[in-house]
Amino acid sequence: MNTVINLCIQFFKTGLFSVGGGLATLPFLYEISDRFGWFSHADIADMIAISESTPGAIGINMSTYAGYLTGGVPGGILATLSLAAPSVIIILIIAQFLNKFRDNPKVKNAFYGLRPASIAMIAAAGINVALIALFNLDAFQETGNILSVFQWKAIIMALLLYLAMKKLKWHPIAFIVISALVGIVLQF
Amino acid sequence: MKTLIDLYLTFLKIGVVNFGGGYAMLPLLERELVEDKKWTSREELLDYFAIGQCTPGIIALNVSTFIGYKQKGVLGGITATLGFLTCPIVIILLIAAFLTNFADLPIVKHAFAGIRVCVCVLILQAVLRLWKTSIVDKITLFMFVVIFLLAISGKVLPVSIPPAILVILSGITGIIIGKEK
Q1: Residues of A with CB below 8 A from B22's CB?
Q2: How far is C-alpha A107 from the geometric centre of its chain's CA atoms?
Q3: At residue A121, does pLDDT exceed 90?
Q4: A101, A129, A144: which is the final residue of a domain?
Q5: CB contact under 8 A, A115 and B46
Q6: pLDDT tens for each residue of A20-41
Q7: Which of A85, A180, B72, B143 is the most core-located residue (most Cβ within 10 A)?
Q8: Do residues A56 and B88 lie in contact, with contact meaning Cβ atoms separated by under 8 Å?
Q9: Do A65 and B96 lie within an 8 Å CB cutoff?
């Protein structure tokens, strides 16, 4: 029982200090691994891979996994809720503040500056995904042939998806499912 | 009660398809929350993303709390967040219990290589849509370029600036040069 309480405290701390989303939790996860041995560094590496292949962010997934290892299903649920709790509390406070001050000129001006920043970071994240999904930088280093960098199958699929999304107003989930199937059939 | 159930189910659905973390979520959130449910606007969604960069926790999680709160107060915020968390918890518990080498299965690898292609395109479309409402003049265009370059330079440079710092600086810049009085 004590372990489960400690588990909750550790993941609450992780949730409180990991600012900026998923990967920000990694340093904390390594620290927990070193101090308590609930999971190994290899487990963390596995969880990064699993998190890339399942819905859910790495921090959430790791807390569920570590909680399960130490306290079964209830442990997994409790550890995850502990991780989420600080961010929920903080956002509820900010949301109240925003409701009051939304029309304040200073707040409006701040968002005037924040929006381009937000889009820029979203675009940068898109580039990072594209580097993995559409290009193969390792192939260039091996062969020195610039053409081998392009993953033609993936690039053509991206173009087709782009055109399809412009024409068809389908739900994004439909395109995600189709892409998964294409990936399996064409062995991406 | 009806709204609470609706919040829970909507974020449950979003949690099922939350592949690839925070930013990849944006197109889905737009579709579900702006177009279908009309619970928020594109601009507000973008604001939540910016705030999410400077607060603890995963951005999608922050968005669920924000939207839930907006619809139904504190209880709504908690309900939406629980909805979002349900599916990831169940999946990881299943994987932990039954599948040890899940991520190494060829079929999983191929499927996710395909999904990543789709995620690129979805992000591109989201950026194009949001461009109109956010890049409104030369100043905002300049800020976009600078922050975009700083954000991607993390790949090449030995030091990278934490996103939270970029966001805080942009907010301060906005307050200083913004036109609202």
Answers
A1: 21-22, 57, 125
A2: 28
A3: no
A4: A101
A5: yes
A6: 555 667 778 888 888 998 888 8
A7: B143
A8: yes
A9: yes
CB-CB contact of A12 with A81 (8 Å): no
- A73 & A122 share domain: no
* Nearest Cβ partner for A116 among B118, B164, B170: B170
Counting the structural domains of chain A, the total is: 2
- Domain locations in chain B as residue ranges: 2-101
Considering only CB atoms, B46 lies closest to which of A88, A118, A188, namely A118
A145 and A83 in a common domain: no
Answer yes or no: do A13 and A66 share one domain: yes
Greatest C-alpha distance within chain A: 59
The last residue of one of the domains, among A79, A101, A123, is A101
Task: Give me chain B's average pLDDT, please.
Answer: 84
Report DSSP letters for B45-86, one per residue: HHHHHHHHHHSBS-HHHHHHHHHHHHHHHHHHHHHHHHHHHH
Q: Which range marks the domain in which residue A162 is found? A: 105-185
Is A35 in contact with B177 (CB distance < 8 Å)? no
Specify whether A55 is located in the same domain as A71: yes
- This prediction's pTM: 0.76
Contact A51, A22 (CB under 8 A): yes
Q: Is the ipTM value over 0.90, yes or no?
A: no
**Which distant-in-sequence residues (6+ apart) come within 8 Å of A90 by Cβ?**
B55, B56, B57
Element (H, E) at A24: none
Q: Do A54 and B92 touch (CB under 8 A)?
A: yes
Q: Are residues A57 and A146 in the same domain?
A: no
CB A91 to CB B77 under 8 A? yes
Give residue A66's identity as a one-letter amino acid code.
A
